[in-house]
Amino acid sequence: MSNINLIDSFKDFKDEKKIDRPYMESVLQEVVKSMLRRKYGTDENCDIILNVDKGDIEIWRTRKVMEDGFSEDDALEIELAEAKTLDDSLEVGDDYIDEITLEDFGRRAILAARQTLISKILELEKDAVYTEYKDRVGEIITAEVYQIWKKEILLLDEKKNELILPKTEQIPADFFKKGETIRAVVLKVEMVNGNPRIILSRTAPEFLERLFELEVPEIFDGLITIKKIVREPGERAKVAVESYDDRIDPVGACVGMKGSRIHGIVRELRNENIDVINYTNNIQLYIQRALSPAKINSIKINEETKYASVYLKPDQVSLAIGRGGHNIRLAGKLTGYEIDVYRESEGDDEDVDLDEFSDEIEGWMIDELKGIGLDTAKSVLALSMEELVKRTDLEEETIRDILSILRAEFEE
Question: Which UniProt keywords apply (predicted)?
Answer without folding.
Answer: Cytoplasm, RNA-binding, Transcription, Transcription antitermination, Transcription regulation, Transcription termination
